[in-house]
User: Fold these one by one.
Assistant:
Number 1:
Amino acid sequence: MKRDDVMKTIQGAEVCPGNAGVIKVPLSDFRHVAEGLRNDPQSPMDFLRDIVGMDWGEEGLGAIYFMESTVTGDTIAIRTATTDRQQPLLPTVSDLWKTALIKEREVYDFFGILFTGHPDMRRLFLREDWIGWPLRKDYDMKSNPLRLDNEINADITKEYRLQRDGTLQGIDHRVFGEDDFVVSMGPQHPSTHGALRMRIALDGEVVKKVDPVLGYIHRGIEKMNESLTYPQTLGMTDRLDYLSAHQSRHALCTCIEQAAGIEISERAQYIRTIMDELQRIDSHLLFYSCLVLDMGAMTPFFYGFREREMILDIFEETTGGRLIQHYNVIGGVQDDIHPTFCQKVKDFIKHLRKVIKDYHDIFTGNVIADTRMKGVGILTKEDAISMGCTGGTGRATGWANDVRKRHPYALYDKVDFKQITYNECDTFARYMVRMDEIMESCRIIEQLIDNIPAGEFRVKTKPIIKLPEGIWTSAVEASRGEFGVVIESHGDKTPYRMHFRSTGLPLVQAMDTLCRGWKFADLIAIGASVDFVIPDIDR
């Protein structure tokens, strides 16, 4: 479909209510529209931000596709659906965007939608023998007994192709070759940063393929949210990426506030922005500590924890929490900052600026660290965009993907800071992005900490919050990349559907590309440099 035809189809289509501007595209036109948007010569939608599976009842089963052009910054969201609930089929877009290889599997896992042409239609989070599709509205919660037997991973997967006569042809693909030597790494926490398992095909010490096995701590958060009121849903975000707890909750509060027309005070905006940046420093310090420990260095590990404890002390005085943060609420923040907050933050930044040199002296210039990181684990800019690898991993390829710059929120359009990018695309670049971002976060905080205005820290809201009917979205720059929230409301006090864009799901997908051809020991350093957090992936 030519660009003019695509634009006519889009312009003549129905737009869903809400701030997302989701355009309804008929299933018969969907594949042509997707191709046209991806290959548009003027504004190519090369970044598929997310695919959100949906059950619209009588309207059918389908998905919403959120796209963005890295060339122009334009965004668009389209949805399509099939009314066949017995054998729901949608055409794959995995040949257009690599991130669809894993995100279409997520939709299949929870809604049972088969993506024709997708080469790997396996479950993603749930067991292969799981019965039913949990995020469908007609799902029987009692359909799965408690299983105490071990799960057998499928080594044969199906690709489904729709024939001209309307029949479906299944083609078998092997996950690993018959002669592949496959080892299982995980699910244990050391070196995997959570309960992650990777099946790895090796040729001697050289990695041939990495197949992530997810879902070991899947808790069904998106399903639970459908029975919770909007204030109750806030408690779920803190247990996703616990090193982005402030930022994740910020995104959800912002989405609800925008939909409900709630305007928070300037004081609350200042506090939220400062807390987000303290959280980023906290996360990057832990990143440093874990990276060096995974590579065998002990002393730098204690450096990172020493300064991180200072941040946690500051958090605890104001929020009451150290790891899990329940501070942001709808309308602002739950309590005002502690009387000593501002002074302690300034003292901490002054201290951090003095000691950061020690971090680099002991590790960054170390010959062993340089040898193991420089030129190792290459992820190109094109692959980073196609896979949706945002955050430090994407910026290490030269892709300027920071949400704070692309779509400013809170006070990020009022402060001066540099978006850190490197062009080397390797493990060392991913490390340096985060180390430099620590200092940029300090710059942001320094511009705000002495200028927090007086006023309310929280505005009054209704006891029961009902959002207008529509599809609502928001996104923030979390510690590991773009964290997004999608809410479909039918005007009730509970969401019809609430979805979180995992920052880590594209990162763990990229491990296969990053590690192929490198030694098994390199995989440990590469994984640490990517910096995924498993609860955010599994949800």
Note: The first strand starts at residue 23 and ends at 24.
Number 2:
Amino acid sequence: MVSSVLSRRHVLQLAGAAALPLSSGLLSGGAQAAAPGTLTIAYNVNLPSFDPTVGLSAVNPTIQSIYQSVFDPYVGQAPDLSFKPGLLTKWGWNADRTKITLELRKGATWHDGSPVTPEDVVWSLQRAADTKSGNPIQFVWSKVGNYKIDGNTITGDVKEFEPTLFKWMAFLTAYVLPKAYYEKVGADGFEKAPIGSGPYKVDAFERNAFLRLKAHPGYWGPKPAFETVVFKFVTDPTSRVAEMESGGSDVTFEIPYEEFDRLKNKPGLAGQTKPVSDIAMIFITDIDPMLDRNVRLAANHAIDKKAIVDRLLKGYGVPIATLEAPGYAAFDPSIKVAYDPELAKSLLAKSGFSPEKPVKFTIQTTRGFKPKDYEMIQAIVGMWRKVGIEANIEVYEIAQHFELRARHALAPAAFYNWGNAIGDPSTSTGFAMFGPSPHCAWKGKDLVERIGPLWGEKDEAKRIAGYKAVDKYIAEEGEVIPLFQYVQPIIHKKGLKVVAQANGMILPQLITQA
């Protein structure tokens, strides 16, 4: 099903391009628009793995658009982040929250035509809970077990109460995979020829170049408007802009905002922006010199977030003071971290640092992954320099970030965009700041003690209040640097209707002819 070795000519034919390699992200001036019935998306990241439930790529929010084109989550999400039936039509707790009940949709089929069964759901959940599986959210899935099947109804015992369990069923790693097929072909076989139950099936794949999908005729949901979808992997934002200007792609996103403003007014093109659930942040690692509270707080107070949003992002962003964005359940607008360079100087002076004798460390960042990510870090480094912080910029790919974070080997400061499609504080502050979490850079005991009791808190009001208190403490200690909530720029050809998602996904199954 998946061809990993293709001729250059075949690659270009598949993408409908001419003259230049797909991986360059550019087409010749005479390039034609996509073939009728084909939707081409200039995508900002490569696809490192086809298994959406294991490995470091499974927690990359940006890749979920591709995964949700091919695989079905247990629970679906509407564009406004509200939950809706997916492969499960019903889900819930019993009265004392010691058991869960799941109802599997009837009539769903895998891409090979075989039916999706309750056994597939149970196997997927058990595999996700297995410490040997490599599922990075294993510590959520392992809290339920002892599943029993009765027709299309599945029940399970709650081993440890997880208040966000059903929210997670719509989020990272929450995909149902085919038990019989996977066990037959194994992990390597699945990587070479993946199948899911989603609206599209994999037709061809050239690593670092493109992924071609075909509509799944047996899909249980609405029939997609496009028979063929091509994801071109175009990691350079300038090349994504060129894709739209040349007519080589129909849709792109995450381009510089000044280019968005320019392209949206060009003949044949249209644009839209929407605040999404992603936030920009800088992880702080609990190593020197970040063990010094004065250094951490100075690094926070020296950043003029509004100036960054206004000047670099053309106003497309919402400055934030915690890891909760507006719309998240625990967002608390009363928590402030003021831009105060004089305060930053005085804090650094207490630790013996000044513009003449700066504290030095490395900050890591992506370049072109998000609009103006590198330029933003350049601006922050300039702001830091004025108060007595000398930061060296190190550029890395997003895949390197995940690998370094998993090994607790990030630099003292590291830029990242945190996606929280379910808007829950456990999936923002919780996983980002709780030491035992593999997604955490700050491993301090102070936060382990504060966040730990909140994981199993059954009183929802008390749980949310607890996270607000944690966010206030983090702001006072400077243990992370929240920057702003993203506004996603989307450019598409006129004649297309793109349904913007609050989670930032670009879902081809929701793109139609206007």
Note: The first strand starts at residue 38 and ends at 43.
Number 3:
Amino acid sequence: MSVLDSKVPKGPLKTKWTDYKNHIDLVNPANKRNIDVIVVGTGLAGGSAAATLAELGYNVKTFCYQDSPRRAHSIAAQGGINAAKNYQGDGDSTYRLFYDTVKGGDYRSREANVYRLAEVSANIIDQCVAQGVPFARDYGGLLDNRSFGGVLVSRTFYAKGQTGQQLLLGAYSAMNRQIARGKITPFNRHEMLDVVKVNGKARGIIARDLVTGEIERHSAHAVVIASGGYGNVYFLSTNAMGSNATAAWKIHKKGAFFANPCYTQIHPTCIPRSGDYQSKLTLMSESLRNDGRIWVPKNIDDVMAIREGKKKPTDLSEDERDYYLERRYPAFGNLVPRDVASRAAKERCDAGYGVNATGEAVYLDFASAIERYGKEQAKIHNIENASKEKIYDLGKAIVEAKYGNLFQMYEKIVDQDPYKTPMMIYPAVHYTMGGVWVDYNLMTTVDGLYCIGEANFSDHGANRLGASALMQGLADGYFVLPYTIGDYLSHEIRTGKIATDTPEFDEAEKEVTDKINFFLNNKGSHSVDYYHKKLGKIMWDKCGMSRNAAGLKEAMVEIKELREDFYKNVSVPGTANELNAELEKAGRVADFLELGELFAKDALERAESCGGHFREESVEIGGEQEGEAKRNDADFAFVSAWEYKGEPSAAVLHKEQLEFNEIELKQRSYK
């Protein structure tokens, strides 16, 4: 085991990034025309990075498995993007965003990276406004803000409930400008299936044209992975069904360490699972917790009456409801961080208070907000003695303006009007904080191989605060990577074009082709989804919202057995030289079956509770924090970075010790 060098610059935290930029090596504009960069993934991180690198003058190739970069999963982000602009005058600052992020991540992130993220956050908003992103504005025309969980200020910029889509269109427009200039060559409907290393440096990728099946070689002086997270290892998640871990896992197997795989976020506000036939789950934005109040009935008789259809939730009076987040966490109420809110919902449902047929749902109620906004609007419009109906109509209009598309989506899926009856929600797998290990430069443990956005591990620790995913993706792509990669590429100006007719490319292409041929020639009896669902059940049951040592040991054994059966009995129809969705899935599930075992191994190794990683053996006993997650800083204040050694169970642990010089290490409290 080695101790990893994060390459954090020396000096005061507040000046590290500025001093770093002042002293790095640069590439002059004429030389940038001779340097090639590959970007895998064109969501917010990849799209912004590609556009910025091309604008600087580099030759960029982009790869995405979707038919257009506009289809990247970033489009699904709903609630907003954080930035420390203090537009509300409520005490926000760069330091407070930095502090909230480190605390929200349960003190398991790297201070220098998080401070840099907070520092550049304000620039992101200016960039996106310049691109025409239609952020919500207040009556005076200034950009509006709302609150998200884990903070006491309003710093989240938003565009109704479709912020990710609008930001992605901004990045896509910046990409299109460079595509038109010939500086970006897009390869849509292409999937990266391996990275190619030459003399220890990343020099290209092997990709498959998903329409024709052709295997292609692409070379570059540096490769950037921006392929998102691995939440679909659970099968059911809020991620798009195509979201996968293949690019990240392939580079892991070629030498890039994989960090903190057990840090997975369970989002508290999702539409509950309704049956075994589902292929994904639907997110309801965390922004809804600004105005929605979460509750379950106080009395078990009322729970049973609601499940049996004998009572409606609106039949219960205020004193018959348990607003359990407001009761347990009075300082933050419904805006506690996601891991805290998710575990609280699970606790109530496990105790028998779940309100739907499966017993896995709690209510998210907007009646109070509609009434509050209605009375406020009545005063604004000088309506005296407004009727209940009028107050409802006025209040509904405000709620609709803020969240209308989310309410519409809920009604289409559940067939209930959420304005009139509370939404039902339950936690679901959402975001992954773990990912490829990177240093301060966003470089992996392989020279010339970078990883940005959700695909890396760097900024969120053990729990991501809401609205920080979009912030990190755009910070990495627009404002961090273009500097750090330039320092590396300044030493590549004499390298010349990278050839693809070399033994290294031959070997990588052969590995990819052999794997494809294996799947197509394997005469098994089970579909790919059969194995994916089985893996998902193991992951949810034993590596889900809570974990224990016995369950994690069982998971490792069961996943390995499932993987062995997969290679013996999986059936993949069709051929290689065509559009073959089952072949695509086979490769992705094969990677999940390895990642899942490493996930369980990492969770077993980390015998503490922190953020989204809740070990049942590590809880607070007695006192005000009774039952809350108990962190162990003496033994686990480090990043777990795993080196691939042929089998997930044989992976070697490397540690990056975390130092906290600006923030005091202490147990989180949101009470």
Note: The domain at 269-429 is CATH 3.90.700.10 (Flavocytochrome C3; Chain A, domain 1).
Number 4:
Amino acid sequence: MDWLTTVDHKKIGILYLIAGGFFFLIGGLEALLIRWQLMGPEKDVVSAETFNSLLTMHGTTMIFLAAMPVIFALMNAIVPLQIGARDVAYPFVNAIGFWTFFFGGLLLNVAWIVGDVPAAGWTAYFPLAGPDFSGGKSMDFYAIGLQIAGIGTLVGGINFLVTIINMRAPGMSFMRMPMFTWSAFITSALILFAFPALAVGLVTMSFDRMFSGNFFVAANGGTGVLWEHIFWIFGHPEVYILILPAFGIISEVISTFSRKRLFGYSSMVFATALIGFLGFMVWAHHMFTTGLGPVANSLFSIATMLIAVPTGIKIFNWIFTMWGGQIRFTAANLFAIGFIPTFVMGGVTGVMLAAAPADFQYHDSYFVVAHFHYVIVGGLVLGLFSGVHYWWPKMFGVGLNEMLGKLTFWTFFIGFHLTFFVQHFLGLMGMPRRVFTYLEGLGWDTLNLVSSIGAFAMGVGTIIFIINIVYSLSQPRTAKGDHWEDGRTLEWSIPSPAPEYNFAQTPLVRGYDAFWKEKMAGNAEMTPAEPIGPIHMPSPSILPFFMSLGLFIAGFGFMYAENEFMNAALANLFSSYVVAGVGLLITFGSMFLRSVYDDAGFHIEEDEINKDRGIKA
């Protein structure tokens, strides 16, 4: 019940981590089945229809349900600590964000149990995603599941924007914020502007499928290209929503384990902001082959190539941070250092794809598959592994085993490059994306075998990581506040794991790398900005759980309203929208209760705070 009702940002961060890890395993199993099917020519591990479902669900799960929650896990666990805040701005809304994401992801994956799985690709292009080619409820699971999950992401982004703007500790100016907090701030701004586009697209898709709307149905005056524009106006900023937090993590980890201030801090801040801004100006580089014309293609080519400039600034700054530093090769730092050349490779192929004439050749080939996996897995996932190893002791009070961590890195890193490096050549040799089998004698056999072996090596790396988690959590919670002994930012100035109220006294920030600055001045802890006194805390609540559960039930009710049930009672309940109504009643009833019940929260008293600090009354 404690975990169902919590509004503590640290516990919500752990919930995001558990849920993201769960969906990560599901997406990974889907990927292994895809690679098993393609390991050799004309294999029949799965049918063509199942392969399309695996491909669709793998992409959708990994982007929306695995990567995003792990990003939000680290943002929840760390950002309030880095800015010296006691919580996020809206703890109740933070809980709503998690539970709506979770129930949306659950609804999407229930499609496997029902046996009506989305199979139109993770981008859901029309007419494939329309009622003519995706009958049954398959793409309804996609549309409604992602709408519910998207609510959680959107309110989470708004929450972090308000938190970072309003709740920084005294002296924590914007240009003293750690890079991870900066990346979370700009990511939240991207979420605010990008996710409404996805919401509009998914609602119009639902109208097309459930109520015979004609937004994307060409026969009735709609156009599938409109969906492409709507999807990619969200979809390309989404790439930066995913990668910017990884950039922030790498900045923190490399700085800490080089025992040096981050090189070119202000240029890193402006580069991050510029990447976020340009991210909204490049969506049609996914659409060079749709016939937009030479002017549009040229503009989007130029804008795409421009993004390489601020990204290059970041790469050089990370290298210069390490230059002359006292580098420690911890597991977290290995992932961070491995990230740099891997992401550069993904960026280089991105610039190749940005040239419209070249893209006509690369488009819909395995070259593109290799490119975006180098960016998302070689970039984002390596960054997330680095962040999880780095902040695990702060979240759980015990560090991950270093030997197992390094083994995870080498197994996953080598497996990754085996899997995706050869796919560039498969694409150049003519292998198209989304094919479930291929003939012998095309010259693709060996490279596909190598790619599949690499994928299973990544699976082994993931298993080692899970073993590491189980092992570490069985150990006593003995992590020090400054676990790595070279902590530079505020989260390392408090015990591990952090107490419920984070800071007994709000810290006074006197410069960038605030805790490092205090340590260099000979202080063992931060200078307080206030005397010790009672701390106000928000009360736990079950209402966010029920609000989200209501949306889950309502989603089912709307999806199956036109379904033909064998059971007359079921048919009557769904066809008269009773189930949908009950779900909405639960959601709006919970909102009503939240509005009329005035919960003043509670206070943690001074003697309890002193007891936590080991000071006798």
Note: The first strand starts at residue 535 and ends at 537.
